[in-house]
Amino acid sequence: MALSWRSWLANEGSKHLFLFFWLSLNVWLFWKTFLLYYQGLQYYYLHQMLGLGLCVSRASASVLNLNCCLVLLPMCRVILAFLRGSQKVASKKTRRLLDKSKTFHVTCGITICIFSVLHVAAHLVNALNFSENYNEEFLALNAANYRGEDPRKLLFATVPGLTGVIMVLVLFLMCTASTFAIRVSNYDIFWYTHNLFFVFYMLLMLHVSGGVLKYQTNLQEHPPGCFNPNKTLRQNLTVPKAFEELFPDYTTETFPEDLPVPEPFVQNHFMRICSEEPKFQSHFPETWFWISGPLCLYCVERLYRYIRSNKPVTITSVISHPSNVLEVRMMKDDFEARPGQYVILHCPRVSALESHPFTLTMCPTDTKATFGVHVKIVGDWTERFRDLLLLHSNQDTEILPIFQQRRYPKLYVDGPFGSPFEEALNYEVSLCVAGGIGVTPFASVLNTLLDGWKCYKLRRLYFIWVCRDIESFRWFADLLCMLHNKLWQENRPDYINIQLYLSQTDGIQKIIGEKYQALNSRLLIGRPQWKLLFDDIAKCNRRKTIGVFCCGPNKISKILHKLSNSSNSYGTRFEYNKESFS
Predict the structure, then answer these.
(1) What is the SS3 assignment for 434?
(2) Domain limits of the chain?
(3) Which of 237, 379, 533, 578 has the fewest Cβ atoms nearer than 10 Å?
(4) In the chain, how long is the greatest CA-to-CA distance?
């Protein structure tokens, strides 16, 4: 059980602990802010006038400030890629935490949605309270202009109210379009609505600049909780019941100015006497302090990415593979990348605004400057991209010299950016599991090993590839055969263990072609027996830490995740890393 606990902590336990810590931090911040504002209302006897709505709205606003500040940081891809590749982040566990940046971004987004609902509900109550409980004693604190003012005017005829309503609509669009169903069925909706975040932040900065929040400027002359009996009784105002017991004879009469305040009253109820009434002034928007830094950092990074990707790449070749897969090979000056990283492609002729991430299947090296990606043709963007690159969508394109190539459309590359698969070469033993087109991140690893494997820590690689169509294995069949032959020539046939699984078959059980003979013996029909596979790997690698990398359907990912957390009798520990299609 101890090993199982260690595996759980190494894989998903750290994420769960962090999420629990983050939730606890937000709840603690909400509660502390709530108490702070509630005590302030009690000092001025405004809790009956405003109720708890103001406390809830301010407490939820503090949580929103924190999350709106941090939700942008996981999207700073250049910074994350720099930290991952920097020698200053030498710990593998720390680098693996960077892989949870998307999870942290989603967590902050969900937190913003939840506390926004609470914030809106509290302000609806506030609008009603300001209207019904209008108090002439604190004119500066009243959001309403007179008693009984229509609360809808406060919501739609003021800057804070109107910007708040628009922000709710923008946030609703962003949240609904971020659901899994919409992202899978129509990625364009997710892409365009998510870019409304800039509108959201601009409205947020206007929302907090309406001057509704005020602070007291004369705390020395009027400390919270003090009492001015002369003014209170001179104006024939009804005093609190606690005062009536101490001043039974003066509750309805003018209190003489030269009469000293009764000593028991001061000792039992108040420690200080105020010399003037409180004065209030609009508070500087604290939200600006929270979001200005991350927003400027994100904008600077986007500007840097735009400058870096402003020059189009040179497309050297385009290859049409079976099962609707397109390979694009490119060249770009001063482009450097590590195995497992990804780039973002932008083709203005396909879409002026859209850009999509693709994992590098070939990285530039010291001997060659070419890098490439494999594009699965699914969706409108990839279909239009294919039609622009190929003369005919069903025609294979031969690899021609650059000077003989047809004129391709302009293509811009942003990146590279980091991913969990960069760690595949940093384990002594790695298990790489791919499902269909999910093989792309491992293709760059295999290409790197083909150039030379001795300089890396990796000494044994288990490569599992599951496909429905046998033609899909042709995408990287040549690469697998070349790597297999190279390792045999170097007397290291046990360096890589290749297992190909064909989950669906119509009777074809072999890859057509004599040059793929090395792969025919490694082609199996059906699905892997994952439990037996993990037991066999654990038995052959006793007391070692094995990196598990998966890029494929969630069903396979969940199975591998569960097996990585389970214990075994060989002292082997599995550390799980995952990349999902969604």
Answers:
(1) strand
(2) 22-80+91-158+210-217+280-301, 311-389+409-417, 421-579
(3) 237
(4) 113
Which one is predicted more confidently, 541 or 509?
541
CA–CA gap between residue 460 and residue 439 (Å, rounded) = 18
Average pLDDT score over residue span 538-542: 88
- Select from 442, 436, 552, 440 the least CA-distant residue to 504: 436
Q: Strand order in 573-580's β-sheet? A: 523-525, 496-502, 460-467, 429-435, 545-552, 573-580
pLDDT digits (tens, 9 = 90+) for 374-391: 998 887 888 889 888 886
The mean pLDDT value for 387-405 works out to 54
Average predicted confidence (pLDDT) for the chain? 77
- 329-338 as b/e, with b when 16 or more CB fall inside 10 Å? bbbbeebebb
- The residue with greater pLDDT, 241 or 313, is 313
Q: What radius of gyration do the chain's Cα atoms show?
A: 33
pLDDT at 84 over 50: yes
Cα–Cα distances (Å) from 102 to 77, 89, 305, 551, 577, in that order, read 11, 19, 19, 16, 14
Q: Which residue pairs from 97-104 have beta carbons closer than 8 angstroms and sit at least 24 positions apart in sequence? A: 97/14, 97/18, 98/418, 99/419, 99/420, 99/577, 100/15, 100/18, 101/74, 102/74, 103/15, 103/19, 104/18, 104/22, 104/70, 104/74
Q: Which residues pair with 573 in a beta bridge?
A: 545
Instruction: Give the CA distances from residue 403 to residues 313, 516, 537, in Å, rounded to whole numbers and listed in that order.
Output: 15, 32, 49
**For residue 286, what are the CA distances in angstroms to 31, 53, 214, 291, 449?**
18, 20, 12, 9, 53
223 touches 272 (CB < 8 A): yes
Residues 6+ apart with CB under 8 A from 21: none
Question: What's the CA gap between 384 and 395, in Å, rounded?
Answer: 15
Correct CATH for 421-579 of 3.40.50.80, 3.40.50.300, 3.40.710.10, 3.30.450.20: 3.40.50.80
CATH class of 311-389+409-417: mainly beta
pTM over 0.85: no
Contact present, 94 and 73 (Cβ < 8 Å): no
d(CA 330, CA 346): 13
Sign of CA dihedral 501, 581, 95, 304: positive
- Give the residue, 257 or 219, on which the prediction is more confident: 219
